[in-house]
Design brief:
Largest sheet: 3 strands, antiparallel
Helix content: 10-25%
Keywords: Ribonucleoprotein, Ribosomal protein, RNA-binding, rRNA-binding
Protein name: Small ribosomal subunit protein eS4 central region domain-containing protein
Organism: Sphagnum troendelagicum
Radius of gyration: 17 Å
Pfam family, one: Ribosomal_S4e
Order of helices and strands: EHHEEEEEE
Structural class: alpha+beta
Distance between the termini: 34 Å
Shape: elongated
Number of helices: 2
CATH architecture of the largest domain: Roll
Strand order of the largest sheet: 5-6-7
CATH class of the largest domain: Alpha Beta
Number of domains: 2
Strand content: 15-25%
CATH superfamily of the largest domain: RNA-binding S4 domain
InterPro entries: Ribosomal_eS4, Ribosomal_eS4_central_region, Ribosomal_eS4_central_sf, S4_RNA-bd_sf
Number of strands: 7
């Protein structure tokens, strides 16, 4: 199963069908996964997703990875890898993240990991 075009590279993501069927074991067949997705129960990054092949990305994992539940407090935050940090017009700083987001404006302390 190939992921749809989206925010992640093909080698850095899994289609939603594979994640729900093979990893989380929510359904036994492809048809059951499609039924789950079409009920609009799946939210990724706070948006409801109905694309059965939506590329669900995973960051910073090499080789095997595991899925685990997070609590409501942890769901309020998203860990992002900063691809570049620049100054735009009139000296307004902005950063670009690994998933295509651009964060503009006053940026607090950005910790840089090497």
């Amino acid at each position: 199963m190939e992921p749809s075009p989206g925010p992640h590279k093909e080698r850095e993501c899994l289609p939603l069908v594979v994640m729900l069927r093979n990893r989380l074991k929510y359904a036994f067949t492809y048809c059951k996964v499609v039924a789950i997705v079409m009920q609009r129960l799946i939210a990724i990054d706070g948006k409801l997703r109905t694309d059965k092949c939506y590329p669900a990305g995973f960051m910073g994992s090499k080789g095997r990875f595991t899925l685990h539940h997070i609590n409501l407090e942890g769901a309020k935050y998203k860990l992002c890898k900063v691809r570049s940090a620049q100054f735009g017009e009139k000296g307004v700083p902005h950063i670009m993240t690994f998933d295509g987001r651009t964060i503009r404006g006053r940026i607090g302390v950005i910790q840089h990991r090497k």
